[in-house]
Write a structure and sequence with these properties.
By secondary structure, the protein is mostly helical. The protein has helices at about 1-10, 25-55, 60-80, 85-115. It is about 85% helix and about 0% strand.
Amino acid sequence: MNSVIAKTAKKNLPMPSTVPAGYYAGRVKAFWRYTLARFLVFAVCWGALWGLGLLVFEMSPLSNLVILLVAMLVSAVVSAFLLAGLRDDLARNIEDRATRMTERLEESRSAEDVD
């Protein structure tokens, strides 16, 4: 990395951004928190509906499939309300990353125009 910085400084090009340690960990952490929370909500819904199905219905492969599909629908609705904060954090992180990438692209274009 130091050789890249030294070569960039000699050519008077914009310095590459140095990313502090752990910077991406917070970004990726938001993704995994939301993803795992979605899986957890689905697992709880599926377990509750499957347990209810054992008590009420005769279980068959078709009823297992129906319970699975209903659990997917219920968990999607529950997640829409229950995980709104985690989803907003994830959206904010994605927006920040897209903004940084756009700024880097513009910096690269302006550096090419100087040459």
